[in-house]
Amino acid sequence: MLLAMKLKAALAVAALASPLAMTAVTPRDTAPPERALTALKAENFPYRLAGDFSRDGKPVAAPLRQMRLGSSLGIMTRQVTAAEYARCVADGGCPRIPQASGAEDMPMVGVSWRDATAYARWMTRTTGKLHRLPSDEEWVFAAAEKASDDALPLAGAADPVAAWIARYDAEASRERPAVLTPQPIGAFGRNERGLQDVAGNVWEWTDTCFVRHDVEPSGAVRVTNTNCGVRVVQGAHRAYMTDFIRDPRSGGCAAGVPPANLGFRLVVEQERWPELRRMAERIADKMLRSL
Questions:
Q1: What is the pLDDT of residues 208-248, one digit of tens each?
Q2: Residue 209 maps to a domain
Q3: 94 with 85: CB under 8 angstroms?
Q4: What CATH number has the domain bearing residue 126?
Q5: 3-state secondary structure of 149
Q6: Half-sphere exposure in the Cβ direction for 135 (13 Å, CA)
Q7: Residue predicted with more confidence, 167 or 18
Q8: Which domain holds residue 241?
Q9: Alpha helices of 57-192 — where are they, by DSSP H?
Q10: Is residue 191 part of a domain?
Q11: Domain total for the chain?
Q12: When comparing pLDDT for 168 and 22, which is higher?
């Protein structure tokens, strides 16, 4: 009797936890542009870990891992435009900041991580669906062939000074974007997953914090410091920016060529309460294990 009751309860919770099918999201003709999403099914992909890595006090290259997202991903097909951000400002949800253009077809640039997060929160309140910045892993997955594998050379890694100079030279020699001024949406084409303007001349904020790691002899990676005042930005190459910086050329970036412009696109959860679903999944799993 007790076993049957547990089984019924677990099945009920599991039904609640069942995620919505992530099929392609096709906006209606009357839907506002910001609702244009690309739905990506989870699959394996190569990912070079973000942050700084060292072994025995000496810098080493970041490990390359095969990863898979925990679930499918719904992400904006294009970057947030200046006109869309202006609507958030007008509604009191976002800080008013200088912007390059109010045109519908221009990406919003000159935004900090804090500005982008404010817009995501406003969109969540406005639509009832969770909007958030992608993690670095999600961005790399969505960027596909446009993602840069920034395994910078660490020649002379036995000498920390020589290693730092080698990394500085490699970062400083990165190719600068041919065009620095933000271009209309679609100017840089689509990647193989259907996203527009990935790795063009607008770098995109992620929600990933800057982390330092120690690589142990076994190959295991141990976090030694997490700094969420600095976030990962992604574009033609990965960079790390202080969260309040709006103009990357004014500072707040690691050594080397800074991003040309700072903008963003958002991940959109298809459920109103994704955390409730995940909690329900964990409860169901524990109940099933106890049967």
A1: 999 999 999 888 999 999 999 999 999 999 999 999 999 98
A2: yes
A3: yes
A4: 3.90.1580
A5: coil
A6: 9
A7: 167
A8: 20-270
A9: 82-90, 113-127, 136-143, 160-172
A10: yes
A11: 1
A12: 168
